[in-house]
Design brief:
50% helix; 118 residues; single chain; mainly alpha; 4 helices; two-stranded parallel sheet; Nucleotidyltransferase, domain 5
Amino acid sequence: ALGMMAHPLEFIPAEPFNAFLKRLKEILAERETEQIVVGMPHNMDGSVGPQALKVQDFVGVLKKSVTVPIVTWDERLTSVMAEDRLREAGVNVREAKKKVDASAAAILLQDYMDSFAG
């Protein structure tokens, strides 16, 4: 293993896009980011549905706006896993959508990093 642990940094709403992009660029500079990993919401059977097409469009726009490489990674079941972990920690997941999203993003990133651990 690489010995790195993913953890939520902050939730940035994608809309309005200009505000999202401004904050993202600040974070990229502050953190000396080498790569962006975006969750790809495939259907459970692995096919590409309408939500995945929206993400593909979003990534296309993002690639024109930042200089770091962007990769997509399968995010199936990350929200379910995040909700389970937060429930175990005593968090009311219905009232904590941002926490669920942030936790799911951390799970996604950890899964991505672990894929290189061999």
